[in-house]
Amino acid sequence: MAKKSAAEVKKSRNNQVVATNRKARHNYSILDTFEAGIALMGTEVKALRDGQASLADAFATVDDGEIWLRNVHIPEYHHGSWTNHAPRRNRKLLLHRSQIDTLIGKIQDGNLSLVPLSLYFLDGKVKVELALARGKQAHDKRQSLAKRDAEREITRELGRRSKGMT
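Structure tokens predicted for SsrA-binding protein (166 residues):
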């Protein structure tokens, strides 16, 4: 079976971003990212297809050599029956053993965290973009905000100059 090119994968209607953790890049310095599968129930997938999820307070932990995604809110599926899922249950992340061992080693060495950045569909399967991150101090956050504002002002000024508005 031939692999799909990146353009074909992006064009597929099964590929959509469901939720992003917008505060993660502000609160953490991202060192490395991983793509992980996630073990879900049927009603969770249906709720995600409706575009409902929140990664606001989500984090990942390592328990007994497995990685678990905690505090992700996937609301109950409105057409579900008594078999509906609990909205904030712990969900197992699916990674290769070598990736799990690498993450465990890095987490134990330094004070690093596993933070989910986004939740999305890829070829009909739900994936999580997981980041190995270090928490930022308050002064680091201020520096990154100042840097972003300066870059924005430079871009704005260059746009003015190119239009002849000095």
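The two ends are 58 Å apart (CA to CA).
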